[in-house]
Design goal:
Elements lengths: L19 E5 L6 H17 L4 E3 L1 H8 L7 E6 L10 E4 L15 E5 L6 H14 L5 E4 L2
Antiparallel strand pairs: 1-5, 1-6, 2-3, 3-4
Length: about 140
């Protein structure tokens, strides 16, 4: 799995790429908030079957995460080149910088206006409006 952008672990800003979905968060999701987000993600997977490919379990194994370090990971379907950057939403934010001065609250996923963009935006919109973990979201459109 090639991770180039992450919503809650890490992000770098590239202003020239269309449809960049971004969020700002410094706080973990509570148990009840995370359950609501996961339930909404299950709905998205059902509605977007064939459009998105869930990579959450694969990521948990590869990253050797603990049970409490839950993540939502998906991309567009690679059939027909409908994938772009992998979307990652973590229950807990990162605490360590990848480079000096990194803003750990800023994260993004570039979708290049591919069909899975709507799933990324829907999940971010849901999390922002139904939890206290994500304070701000934006989208280049």
């Amino acid at each position: 799995m090639s991770l180039r952008a992450v919503i809650t672990p890490v992000g770098y800003s590239f202003k020239s790429v269309p449809n960049k979905n971004s969020s700002f968060s410094k706080k973990s999701f509570s148990e009840s908030e995370w359950k609501r987000v996961k339930d909404e993600y299950d709905y998205i997977k059902e509605i977007c079957e064939g459009i998105i490919i869930d990579e959450s379990e694969k990521a948990k194994k590869e990253w050797k995460l603990k049970d409490d370090d839950d993540v939502i990971v998906f991309n567009g379907n690679s059939i027909g080149g409908l994938d772009h950057e992998t979307f990652v939403l973590c229950k807990h934010p990162r605490k360590e910088e990848s480079y000096v001065g990194e803003d750990l609250s800023f994260n993004f996923c570039k979708t290049a206006r591919k069909p899975y963009d709507i799933a990324v935006w829907h999940l971010l919109f849901f999390a922002k409006n139904n939890t206290t973990a994500i304070k701000q979201i934006s989208r280049d459109r």
